[in-house]
Design brief:
One of its GO terms (molecular function) is mechanosensitive monoatomic ion channel activity. The protein has five helices and two strands. The protein is mainly α.
Length: 163
C-alpha cells in the first residue's frame, strides 16, 4: 500500500498538477489586480459610477439587481481566458508547430533548446529495429495492412542495440 502511494506521488502529472494549482492561484491575484485597478475604473467612468460593481443597478422593491457585478465577473473571465490563451497556449502551440516542421524537414534540433522526448526515442528504437530486420515500420505501412504484421517482425536474438 505504501509503495502504491509512493508511485502515485512520484508521477509527473501529480507534481505538474500541484504546480499548476499554485501558479493558477498566483495568476488569479494578478488578473484580479488588473481588472480591479484598470478595467473596472475605466468601465465605471463610462457608466458614471465609483466602481463597475456599483454601476448598472436596478432597484427592485427592497432589493437591487446588480448588472454591473455580473458584467465585472464576465470581463474578468474573458481577461483570464485571453491572457491564458495569448500568453501561454498560442506561444506553446507555435513552438510545437515549429519543432514539428523542423523535424519533418530533417533539421537537427539543438538538444539544449529542444530536449529529446520519449516519443522521439521510441520512434528511433522502432526504426532501428525495423532496419536491422528489414521489416517495415508501422508508420510506413498502408492503412489496409493489418497491425498483426508488426508482431511478426521481431529483432534477431543477437541484434546489437545502440541505446
Amino acid at each position: 500500500m505504501i509503495n502504491g502511494f509512493k508511485e502515485f506521488i512520484m508521477r509527473g502529472n501529480v507534481i505538474e498538477l500541484a504546480v499548476a494549482v499554485v501558479i493558477g492561484a498566483a495568476f488569479t491575484g494578478l488578473v484580479n489586480a488588473i481588472v480591479t485597478g484598470i478595467f473596472n475604473p475605466l468601465i465605471a467612468a463610462i457608466f458614471n459610477a465609483d466602481t463597475l460593481k456599483n454601476s448598472l443597478t436596478v432597484p427592485l422593491g427592497d432589493a437591487e439587481l446588480s448588472f454591473g457585478l455580473v458584467l465585472a465577473a464576465l470581463i474578468q473571465f474573458l481577461l483570464v481566458a485571453a491572457v491564458v490563451y495569448f500568453a501561454f497556449v498560442m506561444p506553446l502551440n507555435t513552438l510545437k508547430e515549429n519543432q514539428a516542421r523542423r523535424r519533418q524537414a530533417g533539421v537537427p534540433l539543438d538538444p539544449k533548446k529542444n530536449p529529446v522526448t520519449d516519443l522521439d526515442l521510441l520512434t528511433e528504437i522502432r526504426d532501428l529495429l525495423a532496419a536491422s530486420t528489414g521489416a517495415e515500420t508501422v508508420s510506413s505501412r498502408t492503412a489496409a495492412a493489418p497491425l498483426a504484421d508488426a508482431t511478426a517482425a521481431r529483432p534477431a536474438e543477437n541484434a546489437k542495440h545502440t541505446l
